[in-house]
Structures are given as structure tokens and as C-alpha cells.
Amino acid sequence: MNKISVTSDNIFPIIKKFLYSNQEIFLRELVSNAVDAVVKLQTLIRLENLYDIIDDFKVKIIIDKTNKTLHIIDNGIGMTQEEVDKYINQIAFSGAEEFIKKYKNVSTTDSSNIIGHFGLGFYSSFMVSKKVMILTQSYKKNEPSIFWSCEGDPNFIMKEIEKRDRGTEIILYLNDEESKEFLEYDCILKLLQKYCKFMPITIYLSSKSEENKEIVINNINPDWKKNPLQLNDKNYLDFYHELYPNQLEDPLFWVHLNIDHPFHLTGILYFPKIGKRIDVQKDKIHLYQNQVYITDNLEGIVPDFLSLLRGVIDSTDIPLNVSRSHLQYDTSVKNISKYITKKVADKLDFMFRKNRDNFQKKWNNFKIIVEYGMISTQNFFDKAIKFFIFHTLYKSYFTLEEFKEKIKETQKNKEGKIVFLYSSDQEKQYSFIKEATDRCYEVLILDSPLSVHLIQKLEMSYTDICFVRVDSDHIDKLINFKKKEKPHSELSEQEKQNLKDLIQNYIMEKFKFSIQLEDLSKKDYPFLIIIPEFLRRIKEMNSTMEKDIVEKDKYYQLIVNTNHIFMKKILKETSEGKRKSMIQEALNLTLLSKDLLHGKNLTDFISKRLEDLIQE
């Protein structure tokens, strides 16, 4: 019996402490080691001309429920006694010491990604096992076969045994209660499909205790490793559904990543149909290293807007043994992030220039990804502004420069800025849209959850334009030309003051609207309810817009059209009750048109209208 002295007390409590919450990681580590052993042998065959070694290289996982063991078997390079001592007894323990010094405060979620970088991969088997055995035979024919065994403490047994076939077998004697799930075929199958689905050596799964046929787990040559020239649309679509078997819809298009210098990166990113949804996607981008699944949490590795995409990124240049807060400062990660951003932007630009009609047909299904990228990533904004397209009320599409050119002579405000009129809801803002289109103005449709953030960004980048929603004021105040003549006022200043007092007294009973008298056209409505663009944007950007406005109607302005015939009628009415009823009726109709008449006010309004109909 041998004993190893570990300066950091004992490796096994370390493993339990840091990795207990993610026990399943042991299978990824052990299978990865087995695959590495085969790949190393394949490399040696080429480098040392060992062509007498002819074999069907593979890794096998066998479940034995009767003996409560799990077997991971490879026919790779194997180990000599000296190598077992070096790679199992020494490297892992020194790695444990380094791990403790550097990551004593690391979270368990991060630790699952860095275990293999400290020589702890093999020892993750003790998270689920009360005993672990190794049976190994080196590819060097004159070397003896070696047995190694440990029961989760610093003591181990190592000795020569009867000659075995080349390769290594790891036998895990699983903990009775805590780890019994790992004796279930379906559980192991699920984990292998998660972590080992694209490992480069064929992996087989079987069970001794059940009538499960031996099956192949993985695709050893996934499409992201292939030359894009070898793939057609069907290949990409088939691979997408291999990645995400539960996705019924096809992606819109994809970007194939492939670069060897100054860093190594391959992958395929798919654009799914997103529409206006910006919620967290169930199916995320998967990060691999040498075809080994690492994580689907790419925070700090790629720009946030790419989290809305799906697909695979495979790179050995993304450091996993650092905390996520340090990733943003890593040069390799910065360069990888910039490269992916550029490739996505270049693909979209190419599609736009090659077939704009097809690009426009798909636009609304992925527009929000582009918006997110433009808001959050300056490098992407600089490229995307050339292919970002606005669509108008009449389904015409324009880039920013095209739209500026179209309206620069007809849509300006009093400061001389070009006014981009827009609507966020054609139904709710219908009357305001009609006022604009009656004057032959162009109205954009900006109905994305990110629209308000994007227009802020655009206004900062282009100081000669401004975005104004059609219902933020009367149209003749939004578009202002000197040649326009202001309508003549039908009321005297005293009449206006009297009118304001009458309306103010009624309004204060139920609402907190501020009141503003305007000399508008006789054809305009008697009342307009607006929220000035500035106030509304603040509310929208705080994502509390709708709730705050319903509860705090002080943000609304009530514009009173002094030139409407209704105002003279109010002033002439001598009955206070009748006058109040007239104001209430007109205001209720205005509130109803803005979807602001709710609760008791709405019920009272409907009841009164029904009474009036009966009396008529």
C-alpha cells in the first residue's frame, strides 16, 4: 500500500467542496481523457511510422448495474507504470494545490469548466465513486500491464498484472445512494449526448444488465469542422436539427466561422426566427474545445446580442481557468469576439447587397438581433448602419441614408432637423397617423421592444435627424415650416382663459393632465391627449412605461383646440351641469380613443351612453 503526501491536506475533500453541485461533469472528463488517449496514439502512428498498429479506434462506456460499476474503456495509447505514477499520482495532486491557491473562492458553476485545466479531470471520478480502479496497457509492447486502485483517500495500490489489450479501462464503483442515477442507461445516454455528442473518436454505450443494444453516441466529423465549400444548404439545415432536435422551424440563414490565425476558431452560428421576442433563448450557442462540450453560457466571451443566435463555437484559445469577470480583459477573447462580430456583420451585408428583396422578406424575423447589436456593440453598429432598414406604413423599405434623402425637403422641425415620424402601434395611433399621411408625410413603423434605445443611438450618431412618434404632439407642431400660416384664433384671450378654467376644474376632479390651449385647424379634434416625446422615451427606456402612465396620468398633456366649434358651444352654455356633461362626454371619447378609459370611468361612460340611447 502506497501513500501520497498532499500539501493541501487531501485532494478528495477539495473535489467534493468545489464540484459537488455538478457531479455529472465526471463523465465528460473521463470520456475526454479516453478520447485524448486514442488521438495521441493516432498522432504517434503518423509521427513514428507505427503502421503495424492497425485498429478500430473507439471508446466504450459500459453500465453494470449488478456490480454497481461504470466502465470507461479506450484502445488508445495506454500508460506505463512510470506514466501512471506521473499523470495519476503526481500531476493531479500538484494540480489540486494550484487549484486551491488560485480558486479557493470560485463558484461551483465556474469550477465545472476549469477542472480539466488543473489535472483534476480523472479525480472528478471520486465525486460519484467510493472506489476507482485503473487497468492499463501501454502501446509499448515490452511494458507490463498496470493495476491502480484507490478508495477516495491518499492511499492507493499500484502493481503489475497479467497482460491486457492495449489501452485503459477505468472502473468506477459508484456510491450506493448519492450516485445510483449514474447506473441508469437513460441518464448516462443523456449525459453522453450532452457532453460527448461531437467528440472525434467513436463512442459506444451499452449495458450488461439490460437489453440495450450497443449504440454509437457521437458524430465524429461535425459540420463546423468541415470546409464550407463541402457543405450545401441541406447539410447546414440537417446539422442545425442535429444540434437542436426539438426545434421544428428551420433557421433563416447561418454564418460559418473558420480561422486559424492569430487564434484558432471554428463554428456555425444560426439566425433563428425571433420576431419581436428578446427573451432568453432556450437553445443557446454551445461552446466546445476540440469537440468537447464545455458550456452554453458564453457571457463575457461573445457580445451579448449574439446570445440570441444558436449554433456552435469551438476554440482552444478561450481560457476557461479564469473567472468570467476577467474574460473581458483577455486579449484572445477580445479578438475572438471582434472576429465573430465582424463575420456576422459581413454575412448580413453580403445578403443585403446580393439579394435585397430576399433580405427584406426575412428582415422582421431577425431585425431585433441587429437592433440589439447596434445598441450594444459599436463595431457592429458601424457596419450594420449600411444594411439596417426601416419600413414605412406602406411596406416600403429604406436605409437611413435613403430615407433621409427622401424626406429631407419635406419633413423638418423648427430647428432644421430632418424629422423621422414613426408609429409604434398602427391601431392605437391611427388618428395621428392619418393626420400625418393626409399631409403626405412618410411614417415609419418602429414597433420593436428595442426601438426607443436604437433611436437614441441613431440621434447621437446623426445630429441632423430626430425621431418623433406621431402621437407626441399635433402634427403641425412636429413638422414645422415657415411657409405654414398659423390658424387664426376664433377666441379672445379672455374666452381662452374662461375655457381653460372650465376644463381645468373638471379635469382636476379625475385626472392630473396638464392643459395646453392651441389654435389648431377647425378640422382637428376638440381634444388631443399626448405625451411629449422626451417624457415618453424616459418611461419606455426604464421599461415601466405602460404601468406608470396608467397610474400617473400627470405625464399626459391635454391639448385643447380653441378653434373647434365645440369650444364656442361650451362657452355659450349657461347651465353648469350641461356644460360639465359636454366636457365629460368629449373628453371620454378622447380617452377612449387613447385606450385610457378604464374601470369605473369606462363603466359610467357606457351606462350613460346606453341611457341616452334609450331616451332618444
Task: Give an overview of the whole structure.
- The chain is α+β, with helices and mostly antiparallel strands.
- The protein contains 20 helices and 22 strands.
- The strands form five sheets. The chain has a nine-stranded mixed beta sheet, with helices on one face.
- Helix 8 packs parallel to helix 10 and helix 16 (533-541) packs across helix 17 (545-551).
- Mean pLDDT is 83; it is low at 4-9, 93-100, 106-118 and 544-551.
Summary of the model, kept short:
With 616 residues, the chain is α+β, with helices and mostly antiparallel strands.
Radius of gyration: 35 Å
Strand order of the largest sheet: 1-6-5-4-7-3-2-8-9
Mean pLDDT across every amino acid position: 83
Secondary structure: helix percent: 40-55%
Estimated share of beta-strand residues: 15-25%
Shape: elongated
End-to-end separation: 106 Å
**Low-pLDDT residue intervals, each spanning 5 or more residues:** 4-9, 93-100, 106-118, 544-551
Structural class: alpha+beta
Count the beta strands. 22
* Number of continuous helical runs: 20
Largest sheet: 9 strands, mixed
Tag the structure with descriptive keywords:
single chain, 616 residues, elongated
Which SSEs are present, and which pair or pack?
Blueprint: E1 2-3, H1 11-19, H2 25-47, E2 59-64, E3 69-74, H3 81-103, H4 108-114, E4 129-137, E5 145-150, E6 155-161, E7 167-174, H5 185-195, E8 203-207, E9 215-216, H6 233-243, E10 253-259, E11 265-271, E12 285-289, E13 292-295, E14 310-314, H7 324-327, H8 331-354, H9 356-376, H10 378-384, E15 389-391, E16 397-399, H11 400-407, E17 418-423, H12 430-438, E18 444-445, H13 451-461, E19 465-469, H14 475-478, H15 493-510, E20 514-518, E21 527-530, H16 533-541, H17 545-551, E22 557-561, H18 565-572, H19 576-593, H20 599-615
Helix pairs in contact: 8-9, 8-10, 9-10, 9-13, 16-17
